[in-house]
Amino acid sequence: MSSQVVLSARGLVKKFGGVTAVNNVSFDVSSGEVFCIVGPNGAGKTTTLRIIAGILEPDSGDILAFGGKVQWGSIEYKRLISYLPEDAGVYKNLTGLDYLKFMASMYFDDSASIEEAVERGVKLSGLGVRVGDKAGGYSKGMKRRLLLAAALMVNPKLAILDEPTAGLDVVHSVDMRKVILGYVKTTGSSAIVSSHNMLEVSYVCDRVALINKGVIVDVGTPGELLEKYKVPNLEEAFIKAVGGLD
Ligand SMILES: Nc1ncnc2c1ncn2[C@@H]1O[C@H](COP(=O)(O)OP(=O)(O)O)[C@@H](O)[C@H]1O
Ligand SMILES: [Mg+2]
Q: Which class for 77: exposed (0-12), middle (13-18), buried (19 or more C-beta within 10 A)?
């Protein structure tokens, strides 16, 4: 499968009052690629992903995706993507299974597609028999995995995942990364993943965009960035890319 660009962000700008949260952000995401946006808290990751997810309208800039310019509010575009927000929660009183059924029915109209999606979701969740328990009793790791399963079970061409591993222990983080990588590499779909943890991303990201104060300061494979800055890890690459600590 030869890879092609499925999404281009072109010159995205978003201001909140006097703060320029996203400042002329451009990048390309290819098919079969996990593209990561990595930077400290407040760098503009969530704002960028909300724009890409069609939740937040940019002040300027365009998104080109799947062969055309995305019009604001396009339903066709939203049917090709899925979005896991940073602060997403589960419904405490629904079982994991009912949550997956509910989310699948929001996305698909026909019962066969809903059933197939739920079947994929149950597998992706890794919850086993616990999928029948109320989500309020799940651990944080189980909840995040359920939310990730819901985002991937609909077979999006592009999964937009905002800090999927934030706050998880190492075991659950590794699980999440495996599920994301497995999805992208088996389907040829793509994922945009944000993280403030610069040390974990080498394991899941094909390419990394380093973002600071709303600006992408560099993009490359983890290996390319380490080579370019002659450093042993991406945290140090980031510090060099931004010209040292403030
Ligand atoms: N809805 C909002 N209203 C005002 N300021 C916002 C809003 N969303 C984000 N910001 C500001 O924009 C900047 C980037 O935030 P964000 O995109 O959430 O960064 P990150 O996800 O990298 O932590 C921050 O300074 C944040 O305070
Ligand atoms: Mg964020």
A: buried
The answer to whether residue 120 is domain-embedded is no
Specify the residue with its C-alpha closest to ligand 1, atom 17. Answer: 44
Reported residue count of the chain is 246
Protein residue whose Cα sits closest to atom 3 of ligand 1: 16
Determine the distance separating the centroid of ligand 2 and the alpha carbon of 86, expressed in angstroms.
6
Phi, psi of 164 (to 5 degrees): -60, -25
Residue 103, in any domain of the structure? no
Q: What is the pLDDT of residues 94-132, one digit of tens each?
A: 999 999 999 999 999 999 999 999 999 999 999 999 999
**Residue type, position 138, single letter:** Y
Domain presence at residue 125 = no
| Residue 45 beta carbon below 6 angstroms from any ligand 1 atom | yes
Question: What are residue 44's phi and psi, to 5 degrees?
Answer: 115, 15
Candidates 47, 55, 193, 197: which one to mutate for ligand 1, based on the most atoms within 8 Å of Cβ? 47
Q: Is residue 40 part of a domain?
A: yes
Mean pLDDT of the chain: 94
Full-model pTM: 0.95
